[in-house]
Amino acid sequence: MLSASRITIKRAYSTAPKNLTIGLIPGDGIGREVIPAGKQVLEALPSSYGLAFNFIDLKAGFELFKKTGTALPEETVEALKSSCDGALFGAVSSPTVKVAGYSSPIVALRKKMGLYANVRPVKSVEGIGRPVDMVIVRENTEDLYIKEEKIFERDGQKVAEAIKRITESATRRISKMAYEIALQRQAVRDLGAESLHSKPSVTVVHKSNVLSVSDGLFRETCKKVYEENISKYGSIDYKEQIVDSMVYRMFREPEIFDVVVAPNLYGDILSDGAAALVGSLGVVPSANVGDSFAIGEPCHGSAPDIEGRGIANPIATIRSTALMLEFMGYSEPAAKIYSAVDANLKEDSIKTPDLGGKSSTQEVINDIIKRF
């Protein structure tokens, strides 16, 4: 049985064929070391699930940009659209200074594939980190991440400006997904799954006390969608939280949050911060989700400090692989992966250095697979 942290949204592609083609996009840095973990786990799933996997190796990333001048080749996008049932994305290096012609390939990929939601479950395992059982639903297509920036001079000084864009249409669809996830989590809890929560809730995060127009529209639209569908969503506790107090409360009392929905920037920051509650960014998964496709993506970055050392934590990728399967409609094999990961985490013997262990990436992969 799936635990209450798991998300299963019924979509048009939940009846996908049993022979599945998965695109593999390692990207940069340790992405090249952890994406093979997702592949190995899928290949090792018991045959009783009736799934067979084909894989397509695809390219994207900053390193590719430096070699070719292109961070996201059209061939990669076309292969995902025409040949793949789902995909895994590793990590991308993000230069801290402006590089002419470069923009993040994962941001571009989300837009080109219509992946408007970034869904990040954060759940503690007994004995590790703080008690937490939440899902952060991050709007994936707009806010400051539209990257419409400019720099100019005023009174002899440089001025940089960035456009923050919030639209009613994007907010409606992300809030609806958050409410649907809250209902699904409660349905799983009603079947007996353990959880910190007895009732579903959705917390809308904003800064409308300062950004009354942009964040005000986000807040107002989320509330309007709830009120317009009260017959369906009335069992959900609707809550709001200003983003700075949200950060404070998330670290002080993380157990009170069930589903959290936020604009792009706040969702990014909150989900990375929430990883500290469960031990490491190396264990936190995510899925980029649209109406017809899902890409699993670990929350960590390219981690150049440990690149090539064989000690990157593969668990975030493995969990992201399971999350991808869930959004494709395959909940049972996803549950098998989650259970194996949780069993690994509950033991102290085989862990990567970020969790205080001395094991290699491959040793953790092997230990998880043997638990299937």
State the gist of this model:
Helix content is 38%, strand content 20%. It has 12 helices and 12 strands. The strands form 2 sheets. It has a 10-stranded mixed beta sheet, sandwiched between helices.
Description:
The protein has two domains: 1-115 and 290-372, Isopropylmalate Dehydrogenase (3-Layer(aba) Sandwich), CATH 3.40.718.10; 122-279, Isopropylmalate Dehydrogenase (3-Layer(aba) Sandwich), CATH 3.40.718.10. The chain has 372 residues and is of the alpha/beta class. The protein has twelve helices and twelve strands. The two termini are 15 Å apart. Helix 1 (31-44) crosses helix 10, helix 5 packs across helix 6 (214-228) and helix 11 crosses helix 12. It has a ten-stranded mixed sheet, sandwiched between helices. Strands 6-7 form a two-stranded antiparallel ribbon. It catalyses: (2R,3S)-homoisocitrate + NAD(+) = 2-oxoadipate + CO2 + NADH.
Share of helix, binned: 25-40%
Q: Please summarize the sheet with the most strands.
A: 10 strands, mixed
Can you tell me the number of structural domains?
2
The CATH class of the largest domain, by name, is: Alpha Beta
Instruction: Tell me how many strands there are.
Output: 12
What is the terminal-to-terminal distance?
15 Å
Mean pLDDT: 91
Which word captures the global form? Answer: globular
Give the second-level CATH assignment, the architecture of the largest domain: 3-Layer(aba) Sandwich
Order of helices and strands: EHEHHEHEEEEHEHHEHEHEEHHH
> What name goes with the CATH superfamily of the largest domain?
Isopropylmalate Dehydrogenase
The low-pLDDT segments are 1-17
How much of the polypeptide forms β-strand, as a percent range?
15-25%
Q: How is the CATH topology of the largest domain named? A: Isopropylmalate Dehydrogenase
Oligomer: single chain
